[in-house]
Amino acid sequence: MSKKDKNIEVEIAEAVKDGKQVQQVLIGKNIVGEVKNSDGKFTAILTDGEEFNVHSFDEGIEVLLQQYHLHQG
């Protein structure tokens, strides 16, 4: 038996943190993490403070979602 796919709504909201603009990734009302751009270098930051250096904004979103789904359960 296969499971039905669930549709999950992912939202990206802009916010200002420590005087710098960041993009927060939300699933429902839960903040998954944020992606920060500093001088062309992107960092994906989880809510627990763990940071990942990534090459692009899209890769940052992918990393946050992968980590979110990995630790849910």
UniProtKB/TrEMBL annotation:
Name of this protein: DUF2969 domain-containing protein
Tree of life domain: Bacteria
Source organism of the structure: Paucilactobacillus oligofermentans DSM 15707 = LMG 22743
Pfam families in the record: DUF2969
